[in-house]
Amino acid sequence: MSAQATAAGPKFFVLGVWQQPASLMGTWAARGINTMVATPQGQDVLTWAKAADAAGLYQIRTASSDLSFDIGDPHLLAWSTQDEPSDTKTTL
């Protein structure tokens, strides 16, 4: 077993909120939140990410339409992906 870390993480404790609109980012930052998690449905990811950057907030979100923006975004911690389907309606 290796003693090496698998990835370098942030040098801060992530305090995040789930799917908040861009209009509330300043409010959340003032409350001490430092990370936005998941872009709300119906909001453009790139516009939302730029608003988060302007508020100094980190993000865990889907990829934007401009991957060159994502690569250069110092506030992007991780891309989120769609969860697997629950498939709870299938009968055996």
Please, could you describe this protein's structure?
With 92 residues, this protein is an alpha/beta fold. The chain has helices at 25-30, 45-54, 67-72; strands spanning 16-18, 35-37, 58-61, 76-79. The chain has a 4-stranded parallel β-sheet, with helices on one face. The longest helix is centred in the middle third of the chain and has 10 residues, at 45-54. It starts with 15 loop residues before the first strand and ends in a 13-residue tail after the last strand. The model has no long low-confidence stretch (mean pLDDT 86).
C-alpha geometry: globular
Helix content: 10-25%
Number of helices: 3
What value does the Rg take, in angstroms?
Answer: 16 Å
Oligomeric grouping of the chains: single chain
**Biggest sheet character:** 4 strands, parallel
Number of strand elements = 4
What is the chain-wise order of helices and strands?
A: EHEHEHE
Question: Main attributes?
Answer:
single chain, 92 residues, alpha/beta, 3 helices, 24% helix
